[in-house]
Amino acid sequence: MSSLGPARIVVIGSTMMDMISYMPRIPDTGETLIGDRFALGFGGKGANQAVMAGRLGADVWMVACLGTDVFGDMTIDNFHTAGIDTTYVTRTSSASSGVAPIWVEAGGDNRIVCVSGANAHLTSSQAIRAVESIPRVDVVVGQFEVPQDVTAAGFRAAKERGALTVLNPAPAAEISADLLSVTDWLMPNEVEFESLAGSAPTDAAIAELARRFGVNVVATLGEAGAAVLDGSGSVVRIAPPTTTAVDTTGAGDAFVGAFSYGLAAGLPPAAAARLGCACATSSVARAGTQSSFPQAAELEAALSWATA
């Protein structure tokens, strides 16, 4: 849908069925609280990032594992509706499809529990086969909701083909040396950054983390936007457009998907991060996860703002 270059992206990652409860506040231990409303939606960091990149115009292949249950059927249908290629999505009867109970309180803050289910059954051979089989790949994206060795295998195949690799280290966890060695871009949020670096994402801390891990870094900073460090050696901070937050669920995934699309389409890293900020800002203004991602005119506005 954009005037940028063609973008071909492989996402190795998770799918989740989001079960979202909206409430005035989070209940205390042992307390029962009456919520405001409930919604069922499609999620999973990998799936969210794939859908966001696809909305911007990328050709996207999803590499994932689903259960042989109704949530798996619904997820496949949702991918097809979103234009995501499911050739490399497998099914297993050994586990349920992934689910994510989510609590959202007034003001938009959220708490999420991810139950991996079939996501843990994704294999390295599946990731390698996907990356090696697709005619051209620009960017391969991964997260921590599937086994790290699977992502590392897919990233290694991507590097052998000259594709860029983007790792969103979420949920926060130690990164294996094997995975780091084939990662080009590391994209933590503030919590994940502090887990990795032991400090808040100051310019000096971002530069030190990039040096120590041998990667480029984009730190997402919530309402403060993002900070980007690439090969130039300087940190660029990007303030997002203003908005009123309704639900922050999925905003980080909107950023990762949009940033990955920007890189694949040939944008400089700072412009790709501006696109990520614009899409994430649009997302937090509405409730839901994938259902909150920008569409149509909002996407055009985000691209215009990012490349101005």
TrEMBL record:
Catalyzes the ATP-dependent phosphorylation of 2-deoxy-D-ribose to 2-deoxy-D-ribose 5-phosphate (dRib-5P), allowing the use of deoxyribose as the sole carbon source. This is Deoxyribokinase. Pfam families: PfkB. The record marks M16 as: Important for substrate specificity. Residues 8-295 form the Carbohydrate kinase PfkB domain. One of its GO terms (molecular function) is ATP binding. It catalyses: 2-deoxy-D-ribose + ATP = 2-deoxy-D-ribose 5-phosphate + ADP + H(+).
